[in-house]
Amino acid sequence: MSAAFDILGQIERPWSELALASCLEELASAYGFSHVAIVTIPSSDEAGSELKLLMTNWPEEFRQGFERLGLGRFSPVLRALKADPAPFIWDVETLHGYDPAEPGEASAQARLLIAAGCVAGAYFPVHGLTNFNGALFLAGARPPLCEAQAHELHLAAFAIFGILAAARFEENKRNNPLSQRERDCLKLAMLGKTSSEIGTILKLSEYTISQHLASATRKVNASNRTHAVALAAQLGYLS
């Protein structure tokens, strides 16, 4: 088993974001990296679309610089992550045209990375079957990854996103804003039952059922009943 999966295998259930964050730092250190993050990849090509941070160990100054200098919008990286499911391995010289070993003027982006000790790194994309796409980001002062290490970390990226999804699902269940009746109504609506049929099953009036469904729709910020069912199920509220 790889070092990445040895580390991930130590996370105890129930999975939590706190445990995952600690695990990510250990994983990064094991491969010689100092900076780690989980990011989402924008699905559209609209102006202003950029990588969004979900979890990171970055110092605040580096995070602010990354956002201010547009590294989350850097087009070569975004194009590669959207178009290719393979890992994107980079170094400052290749990506920003600057060799730290050679004297000369560096771009602001390169200076930020070099000052943080991020002279090389990689993005490991995770392309889902839905519209969700993300990546594991690693960077540090080590040489570029070899093929075997890149393969290990890319497999680990899929596991990491699975653990994060499960942890958030459980957290949503604990913080469920829906009442028991609202959950009952949504579960039956998910089975294709009408308000009248749900009322018969729950021994409530059709008006009362409609009120419960309308309230649930507002709580999950859905546009209609069908949308509310989908969102509530996705968020773990109906489990």
From TrEMBL:
Q: Does the keyword DNA-binding apply?
A: yes
Offer one Pfam family short name for this entry. Answer: Autoind_bind
Report the InterPro entries cross-referenced here: Sig_transdc_resp-reg_C-effctor, TF_LuxR_autoind-bd_dom, TF_LuxR_autoind-bd_dom_sf, Tscrpt_reg_LuxR_C, WH-like_DNA-bd_sf
Domain (HTH luxR-type): give its ranges.
Answer: 171-236
Keyword line = DNA-binding, Transcription, Transcription regulation
Q: Which residues form a coiled coil?
A: none
SMART domains this protein is in? HTH_LUXR
Q: Which residues cross the membrane?
A: none
**Domain of life (superkingdom):** Bacteria
- PANTHER family for the chain: DNA-BINDING TRANSCRIPTIONAL ACTIVATOR DEVR_DOSR
Q: What is this protein called?
A: LuxR family transcriptional regulator
What species is given as this protein's source? Aureimonas populi
